[in-house]
Design a protein that fits this description.
Belongs to the DNA polymerase type-Y family. Its cofactor is Mg(2+). It comes from Salinisphaera dokdonensis CL-ES53. InterPro entries: DNA/RNA_pol_sf, DNA_pol_Y-fam_lit_finger_sf, DNA_pol_Y-fam_little_finger, DNA_polymerase-Y, DNApol_IV, IMS_HHH_1, Rev_trsase/Diguanyl_cyclase, UmuC. With 357 residues, this protein is of the alpha+beta class. It has four domains: 100 residues, Reverse transcriptase/Diguanylate cyclase domain (Alpha-Beta Plaits); 63 residues, MutS, DNA mismatch repair protein, domain I, CATH 3.40.1170; 52 residues, 5' to 3' exonuclease, C-terminal subdomain (DNA polymerase, domain 1); 108 residues, DNA polymerase, Y-family, little finger domain (Dna Ligase, domain 1), CATH 3.30.1490. It is built from 14 helices and 14 strands. The strands form four sheets. The chain has a five-stranded mixed sheet with strand order 5-6-1-7-8. It has a four-stranded antiparallel sheet with strand order 9-13-11-12, covered by helices on one side. A three-stranded mixed sheet has the order 3-2-4. β11 and β12 form a beta hairpin. The N and C termini lie far apart (57 Å).
Amino acid sequence: MSETLRKIVHVDMDAFYASVEQRDDPSLQGKPVVVAKRGLRSVVTAASYEARVFGVRSAMPAVRAERLCPQAIFVDPHFDRYREVSRQIRAIFLRHTDLVEPLSLDEAYLDVTVTHTGMPSATEAARVIRAEIKAATGLTASAGIAPNKFLAKIASDWRKPDGQFVITPRRVEAFLLPLPIGKVPGVGPKMKEKLAALDVHTVGDLRAFQREELVKRYGRWGRRLYELARGIDERPVQPKRDSVQVSSEDTLREDLPIEDLAPHIQRLAEKTWANHERKQPRVARTVVLKLKTTDFQILTRSFTPLSRPTSAAEVAEIACALRDRVEADARTRYRLVGVGLSGFVDGREEALQPSLI
């Protein structure tokens, strides 16, 4: 653990997009809501908890969601609304601390070691922040409280929805040892299988391996696994400033061939575009595709069109086209997909430039 004890809160909104839709249309409350356009090529952006009972999940093809839950109510996404609510939530965070690291529109890390509001503990800070979010937006949030970001993120999922869970420094080891290895961020189904072959099923099992052996097997990821098994995560909360790139990425539930990545690229393009819109008046000109193979090789491809992208659909189309520039064995499988935007310029200045076409 770090010598400088941090108090980190990970706040994660509950079924955010779907909850906003249910809030804004009371007739949807208590019903299985799927945020997605209907169609063969559409993917689920979000699902309410009522829809999740039927197995509906984000990134799932919309047609499959409809088969799983025929009574589901499909709602087109409204990212302008989600961004507005996200701004309200961000303002609440900043009343308590300047150390806010947003991960997306619906989640963020907060360092509440010292707060502007003089909260007596991180647990109380999380409780107050969640109450303020509920009062301001009518939506619920869950929170994880821990000495570092790794543990806080796991904890925020522990009592969802509308709950919070704290892992104190003294409880770190007791919490980690019996934890199923699949709960560790980054350990997807394929890695879980590899570890199971070594008779590793819990974090406690993983601790039996020395750093050198894990590094030999998994490279840098092996070193990371060694640290996480011991609750070590020294990453500070880093407030977002003017970034050179906005992006969204996901570790997939199962490793996929490149031809099956389109639905995930489309969903991530929508999330990235929603984050990009918050950068106004700065606009991006370059689309970036990031892939990580099952053996943790990272591949990136980028493209700067003559005219900058102006919609999520354009970003998705370009990112999907970038797959054709990935030269890899047809048997290669991918465990992570990311879509980013970079090459930011001031949109007001761009509007004054003469057309190049």
